[in-house]
């Protein structure tokens, strides 16, 4: 039977590898446990007026070019209000009937109307400018508050992370986790 002699070089490599794994796992768990904190609003955004709230995650704004523009909020998904294929899929997946989901969707829509209807907001784009339906994809800032985060933090929307639009994905995930654990908003009704 042959024994391999451990050299300082081999021992050093194992020690370095172990340290690297420890650092990476610590960083990953710190990222996973990121706090639900409002990010800083970037400079240079342009104001638009909210002319209509379609549902909890879609609004219509009057843009600087004089046109109305449909905007889908990035990173979030509120329950459906209108009959659609997505509503049917959500009902099948959740085991709830469509009317129950629509009732939750109405609450999310009311929450968005309370915050955004008739207000001036600023839109922040991410990587992809529009979705397959032609809606502008944006984060919506109301003053210094990121509304996408507000609706998730208060429990009226879940997460919908679609890369490459992930600028605020970690903070949205932290706020979503906090809202569910605290049974805020729809999570108080949705269990």
Summarize the structure.
With 191 residues, the chain is α+β, with helices and mostly antiparallel strands. The chain has helices at residues 8-32, 85-94, 98-116, 147-153, 169-182, 186-189, and strands spanning 47-55, 58-62, 68-73, 75-77, 120-124, 136-142, 145-146, 158-160.
Protein model, in words:
With 191 residues, the protein is of the alpha+beta class. Helix 4 packs parallel to helix 5. The chain has 6 helices and 8 strands. The termini are far apart. A hairpin with a 2-residue loop joins strand 6 and strand 7. It is globular. Mean pLDDT is 87; it is low at 5-12 and 14-31. Helix content is 41%, strand content 21%. The protein has helices spanning 8-32, 85-94, 98-116, 147-153, 169-182, 186-189; strands at residues 47-55, 58-62, 68-73, 75-77, 120-124, 136-142, 145-146, 158-160. The longest helix is centred in the first third of the chain and has 25 residues, at 8-32. The protein has a single domain (47-189), classed as OB fold (Dihydrolipoamide Acetyltransferase, E2P). The strands form 2 sheets. A 5-stranded mixed beta barrel has the order 1-2-3-6-5. It has a two-stranded antiparallel ribbon with strand order 4-8.
């Amino acid at each position: 039977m042959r024994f391999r002699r451990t050299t300082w070089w081999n021992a050093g490599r194992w020690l370095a590898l172990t340290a690297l794994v420890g650092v990476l796992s610590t960083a990953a768990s710190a990222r996973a446990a990121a706090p639900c904190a409002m990010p800083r609003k970037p400079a240079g955004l342009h104001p638009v007026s909210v002319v209509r709230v379609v549902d909890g995650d879609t609004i219509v704004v009057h843009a600087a070019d004089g046109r109305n523009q449909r905007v889908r909020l990035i990173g979030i998904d509120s329950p459906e209000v209108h009959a659609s294929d997505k509503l049917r899929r959500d009902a099948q997946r959740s085991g709830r009937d469509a009317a129950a989901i629509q009732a939750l969707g109405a609450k999310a829509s009311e929450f968005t109307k309370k915050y955004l209807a008739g207000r001036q907001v600023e839109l922040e784009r991410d990587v992809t400018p529009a979705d397959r339906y032609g809606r502008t994809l944006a984060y919506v800032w109301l003053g210094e508050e990121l509304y996408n985060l507000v609706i998730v933090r208060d429990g009226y929307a879940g997460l919908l992370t679609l890369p490459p639009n992930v600028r605020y994905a970690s903070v949205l995930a932290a706020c979503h986790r906090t809202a569910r654990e605290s049974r805020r908003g729809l999570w108080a009704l949705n269990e």
